[in-house]
Amino acid sequence: MSSHRKPSIALLAAPETSASVLYGLYDVLLSVGAVYPDMVNGVPGDELLDVRIVSADGKPFHCIGNIPVEPHAAIHDVSTLDAIVVCDMYTSIYDVPKGRYPREVEWLERMHASGALITSVCSGALLLAESGILDGHAATAHWAYRDMFQRHFPKITFRNASVLCLAAESDRIVTAGGVSAWHDLTVYLIARFCGYRTAIETAKVFLISGHSEGQSPYSVMTRPMECTDRSISECQLWIADNYSTVKPVEKMIERSGLKSRTFSRRFRAATGFTPIEYVQALRIEEAKQMLETDQLSSGDVGSAVGYDDPASFRRIFKRGTGLSPAAYRKKFQRISQIAKGN
Predict the structure, then answer these.
(1) CA-closest candidate to residue 263, choices 243, 272, 277, 254
(2) Burial (CB count <10 Å: 0-12, 13-18, 19+), residue 226
(3) In whole numbers, what is the pLDDT of the chain averaged over residues?
(4) Rounded CA gap, 49 and 31, in Å?
(5) What is the pTM of this model?
(6) CATH number at residue 318
(7) 29 and 175 in one domain?
(8) Residue 15, in any domain of the structure
(9) pLDDT more than 70, % of the chain
(10) Paired residues of 50 in beta bridges
(11) Domain containing 134: what range?
(12) Contact, 206 vs 184, CB < 8 A?
């Protein structure tokens, strides 16, 4: 890369893209090198990055919220880039978008082969998955797509707790989690192409602090994409109302009439969880809601969801959310206070 050429970054967007992601990325990346000197010394600096919005055909369109987008170029007109950011392209957790973006997927394959860094935000990772460049690698996207990735892209290790997954960085692939994870990806891109000092300065301008705790505190247990196994489905319905019972897995096995190993195998095939993981996830979800709104002690919350040993509850809760019960309560009750204007 010539020292006289600005690093070039393309933001790939579509009608299913969130305006907040697309324009947030564009605003911050375009300001790199220019805004910080202006705010500190009153003299604008030079823009350090060449940032362009691209789409399949380059024609104006409206993204989510009916927000107008005027791409700078069509993808077939762009052949040399340092990096590509595939913006989020919303799809239901039940609607696998294979075959929806054939031109974009082919372009990503070609650009990756030519040496470009390929990155994604949230559901944008689904395009990387379809292209095959993620096969054999770990990646992340919004936590709600965990089941979709596990079922339809089994060659990819899905890291639902990660906000920014750098596991495939050496192969020029970086994926970011939920939509606001574009903050973390942006800081990474600035540091990579302009240096850490510039990344820190830009983060100061836009008050970007990142998501150091990962996605786990925000994740919610989602329903499996499908469950055609009637025995397992009936056990799911029962445990939803009886998660705090003693020896819940044994009781589900009894209700199913299956042998233990058969039940475990069929349960995992139907839900993506082992039976005990499923019970623990249900209990944690209920505990999270109680911690967000109630004033019970963490020990009482643990007891209410089926853990009489406070130490066990704290350990399992932290493993599932990345935070202790006390830290989780502090984080989300603070959000509640902000919402109420306190």
Answers:
(1) 254
(2) exposed
(3) 89
(4) 8
(5) 0.75
(6) 1.10.10.60
(7) yes
(8) yes
(9) 91
(10) 8
(11) 8-215
(12) no
User: What confidence tier does 96 reach under pLDDT thresholds 50, 70, 90?
Assistant: confident
CA distances from 111 to 79, 98, 114 (A): 7, 19, 5
What is the pLDDT confidence band of residue 147, given thresholds at 50, 70 and 90?
Answer: confident
Pairing of strands 73-74, 157-158: unpaired
Give yes or no for a contact between 30 and 49, defined as CB atoms under 8 angstroms apart. Answer: yes
How many residues would you count in the chain? Answer: 342
Residue closest to 98 by CA, chosen among 130, 123, 120: 130
- Assigned domain for 1 exists: no
Residue 141, domain member (yes or no): yes
Radius of gyration for the chain, computed over Cα atoms and rounded to the nearest angstrom: 23
Q: Could you tell me which residues are beta bridge partners of residue 62?
A: 68
Query: For 16-32, what is the mean pLDDT?
Result: 96
The most distant pair of C-alpha atoms in the chain lies apart, rounded to whole Å, by 75
What Cα–Cα distance (Å) separates residue 116 from each residue in 79, 136, 170, 182, 197?
10, 19, 12, 19, 23
Quick: pLDDT tens for 257-304.
Answer: 999 999 999 998 888 789 999 999 899 988 988 888 778 899 999 999
Which region holds residue 328: left if phi is over 0, alpha if psi is between -120 and 50, else beta?
alpha
Q: How far apart are CA 318 and CA 286, in angstroms?
A: 14
Q: Above 70 in pLDDT, residue 145? A: yes
